[in-house]
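Weekend entry, working from home. Most of the wet-lab plans are on hold until the incubator is repaired, so I used the time to fold the two sequences that have been sitting in the queue since the last round of cloning. Logging both here for the record. First:
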Amino acid sequence: MGITVQNITGNTAMVIWPKMAGCVDSFYSIMYHPNWNSMLSSYSRKNFQKEERVPTTRSSFVVENLIPLTTYIMCVTCQSANPSSDQCRVFNTLERDPASTSNTKKELALGIWLTSSVLLLIITAVLLYGCLHLLCRRRRERLQEQNRTSKQEHREPWTKSMACTSEEFSRQGQQTQDTEEKHPGGIQLATIIENPSVHSEPIMLSPKSRERVPTTGQCFAI
């Protein structure tokens, strides 16, 4: 078939074959295998690792994803049958392509950059959430402190008023006690404002009552 392999690199190779008018199938089968040993392997389809099918309108194909520095055998047939030796070629791939190595490094650097960016965004979001939570807690504590202060300020006048009332009650109780001590007989005097229309007649008091009640022009009841 006059098969040739061109443009060999570390990962790709182009195979070219002449068109055959007698090929009755609608596709060409391209089979290849690494580390081929013709003494131990036969030209059977099952012995090939990879197989590609291309339309019969084409006469070339670029094989990709090859292993650098590896010996390959490649065969092309126009039917789904086992190839013969005149339909195969053996070639060696080169070292890894510098452009491919550069692309791999770029992809690795891009992956590292994307991972670092995602981690940085996560850390920033966590720190921002922590700061907002801390600010909200401090603000809530400040409001609670202000509420406690205002309650204490409202409570102080009421406490003072209660203290004054208690002191007044104590003073009145002390005065009542002093009055009872001055009157050991337990006689309490009530002052009634004189009403001229009621007290029209003079009240006759006993001699004992006259000693205790002064005559001031008012009406006293014992």
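Second, folded right after the first finished:
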Amino acid sequence: PAMEYAGLAEAAAEKMGLYRRDPGGWRGCRRTSEVAVSWRPSAEFAGSLYRGEGVLPGSPQQVWECIKPVAGGLRTKWDQNVKDFEVIEAVSDTVSVCRTTTPSAFMRIISPREFVDVVLIRQYEDGTMLSAATNVEHPLCPPQPNFVRGFNYPCGCFCIPLPGEPDRTQLLSFFQTDLGGYLPQTVVDSFFPASIAGFYSNLTKAVKALKV
């Protein structure tokens, strides 16, 4: 159902735009030199929607090179929360169904997870790049025995050029993930802000390394 996947991807991208434009209700929960993390209750599931906002020391192209959701991309190298990333089906030039696996985390309290998402890539006229995703089912991707199946609700990243600063990029990201399994809510609530801070820290290092 390629049309269906494309429609879900489009809807996820629209949600990203809504989250970006809607300043209301966010509560700060973590701040580092690289990112400010805030959250509010998710409208999609019984969990939280997290927002990360930071400025990275690289051009939008360099930042995008590090985060773009492609097979064999850089993300598995620098992102400690991404063990493997594969494209299950290329629906179009800009939409694909992908499987991401994550290693165990949080002192092994969180066991390895797998996520199957439809992912959309878009470039806007001002040079902003968007990657948006949401969970889907795919016949080529039944749940695997050694993983807990988690679910990403509309999530993604905006790489936003900063006028007059070609070597700096604003990265605005939204995460809303149901990790699945039986995790205490306290674990989930402390995992995500720490994980997002780690994401920005490791991405900053990856962007710097790419520039060398």
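Plan for Monday: verify the second prediction. The chain is about 30% helix and 35% strand.
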